[in-house]
């Protein structure tokens, strides 16, 4: 491994991941400005444009392939239009043992004062939850569905409908 790669690897491994509030702030600013004046697709396009025009760009020394999700290495943006994290979520993210993301006081304050008040009932997640049946909500509370499954299709359980009518043995025989 050459010195450049070794340096970049060390920086990547030694840098603590953290939550960046920059994207959430930019998205929120745009939605507040244009909501109700343009169609939803145009609003999303304007928000995307505003993020691209105003996002901090990080280009690290020695990088040949550049670009980060956030303004620094290991900066992780949030997407309040999809899921608006509560302050409790941020504490959990900050304190969990496996893969934690540092959440500093400034991020918590901006989340509390600007992000949550705007997105609390507007995020995609909150809108979906409003439409779900009581039975589904009970299943969610019981852990049958998880937050992970909200964001991803559980492909490991999606099967052809034949398997439900026949069972595994008959399905394998066919």
UniProtKB/TrEMBL annotation:
**An example Gene Ontology CC term for this record:** cytosol
User: Could you list the residue ranges that cross the membrane?
Assistant: none
Pfam families, sorted = PFL-like (PF02901)
What is this protein's record name? PFL domain-containing protein
PFL domain boundaries: 3-174
Native species of this protein?
marine sediment metagenome
Q: Which GO terms describe its molecular function?
A: catalytic activity
Q: Which SUPFAM superfamilies match?
A: PFL-like glycyl radical enzymes (SSF51998)
